[in-house]
Amino acid sequence: FKRYHCKNTIEVQPQSLFVGQMRRFAMIEPTGEVQLFGIRFRPAGAYVFTHFPLAEMTDKIIDLDLVWNRFSRELAEKIHLAHSTQERIRLAEKALLARLDRRQDGDKTIEGAINTIIARDGLVAIDRLQKKLQLSSRQLERKFQERVGLSPKFFCRILRLQKVFKATARHRPLPWSFIAAECGYFDQAHFIHDFKAFSGQTPAIYFSEAHEMSEYFTRKNRLSDFYNTTE
Fold first, then answer.
1. Which of 80, 150, 154, 179 has the fewest CB atoms inside 10 Å of its own CB, making it the most exposed?
2. What is the CATH number of the domain that holds 168?
3. Over 80: is that where the pLDDT of 1 sits?
4. What is the pLDDT of residues 35-44, one digit of tens each?
5. Which one of 68, 99, 130 terminates a domain?
6. For residues 6-45, b (16+ Cβ closer than 10 Å) or e, as one string?
7. What is the pTM of this model?
8. For residue 222, pLDDT beyond 80
9. Domain hosting residue 91, numbered range
C-alpha cells in the first residue's frame, strides 16, 4: 500500500503494520493485487500485548517490527504461508497468547466505562461517568490515554460517528438533519463538521461513493469481532 500525506507526499507502507488509534482519516491505495489479514483489538485490548501506553501510538501507522521486533517477522511469514483463513487465525491467536503480559490485569473501572460508552453509542456525559466511577477527571483521562490511546471525550465522538453508519444502514435515504438528531449531534452543521473531520468528505459525498475497504470497518455485515459471525 501507499499512503498519501498532505503536500502531495507519498509513503510506501511496510508489509506488516501496527496502527494506533486514529483521530483523523488516512488515504491509502494498493500498489497492486493484495491480500489482507488484520487483527482488530477491542478498546483497551491491545494494551496487554504492547507493554507501553497506547497514547504513544495515537495517530501513528508504523512498521510492526518496531513494536514486536523479530516476532512480527516470524508471524507474518507463517501467516503468508498458511493455506486457509482458519489456519491464519489459529496462528495469530497462538502468537498473541505468547505475547500476553499476564501481569497486566484488566482495569475493571476502565472496562466498565468503555462498556457504558459503547452501550450508549457515545452519548455519555463524561462528568457524570467519572462521578459514578469515583474518579477525578485527571484520573479518568490518564487511564483512557494509557489503555485506550484516546481521551474519553474523543472515544465518545468515535462511537457517535459509528452510530451514524448504523442509522444510515437502517434509514437511508433520510434527511441529514434526522440522522444528526438521532445520533445525538447538536445540529446538522455540527454533524457535518464532525463527519468531515473523520472522513475527509461531507456525508452526502461519502455515501454517494463506493468505499469498499472502509466498509469492512463501518458496515453491519462486516466480519464481527468473533470472526465466524456477523453483527
1. 80
2. 1.10.10.60
3. no
4. 888 888 989 8
5. 99
6. eeeeeeebbebebebbbeeeeeeeeeeeeeeeeeeeebbb
7. 0.82
8. no
9. 2-99
Grid cell listed for 196: 468531515
Final residue before a domain boundary, out of 99, 118, 139? 99
Residue 73 grid coordinates: 517477522
In this model, does residue 230 exceed pLDDT 70?
A: no
Q: Are residues 121 and 182 in the same domain?
A: yes
> Is residue 77 located within the same domain as residue 149?
no
Give CA–CA dist 215/222, Å, rounded.
7
> Distance between CA 166 and CA 118 in Å, rounded?
13
The answer to whether 52 touches 100, Cβ cutoff 8 Å, is no
Of residues 221 and 53, more confidently modeled: 53
Number of domains in the chain: 2
Q: What is the DSSP letter of 14?
A: P
